[in-house]
Design a protein that fits this description.
alpha+beta, three-stranded mixed sheet, single chain, nine-stranded antiparallel sheet
Length: 354
Amino acid sequence: MASFDLAQHPHRRFNPLTGEWLLVSPHRALRPWQGQQEAPDRSQRPAYDPTCYLCPGNTRANGAVNPAYTGTFVFDNDFAALTPDAPAGTVEIGSLLRAEAESGVGRVICFSPRHDLTLPEMSTEEIRGVVDVWADEFQTLGARPDINYVQIFENKGQVMGCSNPHPHGQIWAQRTVPGDPAKETVQQRAYFQQHGRTLLTAYLETELREQQRLVLENEHWVVLVPFWAAWPFETLVLPRRAVQDITQLTEAERTGLADALRRLTIRYDNLFQTSFPYSAGLHQRPTDGAEYPEWHLHLHFYPPLLRSATVRKFMVGYELLANPQRDITPEYAAQRLRELPEVHYKQAPVQEAR
C-alpha cells in the first residue's frame, strides 16, 4: 500500500484559529467540469461615472452629495445593516428560542476617486492612504462605549455580491463580537496561556521554515496560503511582529502592508488575467476595553475562483452540511500564486507574435 501523501490522498486539516476541520480531496481536481461558469470581468470602466453614487461630486440615494474628494472618502452607509439607535431588548420563547437587539454603525470607504481602479491598479502610496483610514476608523469607532468589535472588509466583484464597481470597502462596527473573531479569540487565548506567545507567531515561524505555502514577503509582512485554507486561492496576510490591532503598526509596517496588498492583488488578477473577485478583511482584537495579549492582527482573503476566470468554487452540499472541503491543495495554490509576476497584466508589455 502506498504511503500517505498530502498531495495525492484525501485527508483532513485542522484550523487552529477556529478549532475546526476541513476535508482536502486533491484527486478530485482532475475531474471534468460541466457545471456553471461565470462570465469573466472584462469591463472597461471610465475614470468618472456620472451615474455612480460613490464618485466625487455625485448624489447618493439619500440625497447627500459627495465632496470632490481626491484621496479616500468615508461616510456612514446609507443602507447600513446596523444602526446605533436600535432599541435594547430580548425575546425568549421557551428555553430554545432567543433573540437579542443588536446596535452598531456601518461605514463605507471609497479607496480612490477613480471609478476605474481596484487595489492592484493603485500605487503603494495610494493603498497606504487606505491603510491609514482603516486605522483611524478602527480607533474612532472602537473608542465608542457601544462598540465592542470593528469589522473592516472589502467585497470585490459581482461574484461576491458587490453592488458597485467603484473601489470601496466597508466597516460594520457592533455591540457584540461576531462569530469568527469570537472563535479566534478563544483559540488564540488558549494557545497564549499555554505557550506565552501568540498562536500566529508560532505558525509564522513554521511557515517560514517550511517554505511550501509562502506567496510573498517584505520586511514587515508575509503572505501565505494557510495550511487549513478552505477557498482555492485563499491567503493569510501576517505581520512579522505580533500586534493586536492596526493602530499599533509603525509607519514602516503600514507602508509594508500597503506593499503586500498591492503585490498580492496584482498576483490575483494575473492568475486568470481578470479582475479577481474576493472577500477580504482584517481580524483584530475586540474593542471592549479588555486586554487581549493573545491577539495577532491578520487579514483574510477569500477568493472564489477555482480553475479559471469562469469556474468558481461553490460551498454547497457537503460544505454546507458537514464541513468545508477543497480539491487543489494549499501547497499547489501557493506555488501558482508565487510563480506569478508582480506587474499587472494590463500594464505588462504586449509581446509581438513571431
